[in-house]
Amino acid sequence: MADFDKEGAKNEIAESLSLSTSCMQQIGFSFKRPNRFATYYRQKLIFILCVCSICYHLFSEVVIIGLTLFNSPRVEDVVPLLHIVGYGILSIAKVFVLWYKKDVFGQLLDELADIWPMSPLEKEAQNIKNKSLSGLRIAHQWYFWLNISGVWFFNITPIALFFFRTWRGQHAEIGFVWMSWYPFDKQQPVAHVAVYLFEMFAGQEDCEVGTHAYTTGCSHLTPEPTCAEPRPKPRKGRICDYSACYCDPPTVRDTKTMKCVQVHECDHD
Predict the structure, then answer these.
(1) CB 159 within 8 A of CB 174
(2) What is the pTM (predicted TM-score) of this model?
(3) Which of 255, 1, 269, 6 is nearest to 125 (CA)?
(4) Which of 236, 150, 216 is nearest to 17 (CA)?
């Protein structure tokens, strides 16, 4: 049996996690400590800024809901605000989990390299691997662009409405991305621009944390379901490929059934 190429496995895992890694960089998060001093503190600053923006975004939405209930407790005025609060709560919960369990996630990804199926594989095993990675990549990209398009729909809607009303000869003003509360007059010109940019940033960070960095990363850490299946009884003619093993030793992967079996149940060349 050829020596297992762990570095090659790490490179393949990193490639399959490229979208998640990019999103984590956008929020200043990483499972590995940067080597450079400046990079480390820049990453920390971005992460703190991201968390503060998400927390204030959620707080401002909760205040708006409270004021709306107090001034006009109508269902049609309150319900449209609730889903934004829900996204904020999920984003804060997920960024906390990522931060609190970052060492665990990093260790699991490192251990994943030990059981990652590497070439040479049997043709059937290689096809399964290629299809799995292709399906995972498509799901990640679809999920990414779906959520990004939703966020940018909110971001550009006030500007699009402004140009549409101007084109129709109506009085038009650029509104805001979200219904948020601020302890100052956000209608002032400078404040208006600052608030609009902040709301675009906060919404983008909500999306990066809540959907991409967390979801695409955790998709690699789901236990392999076949490992929980009862091991089949030994039979003749079974050939096992150690490099195709997804399970913990002393089990290996049967290249015919793709199930985990004990080492002594396999025929060896």
Answers:
(1) yes
(2) 0.70
(3) 255
(4) 216
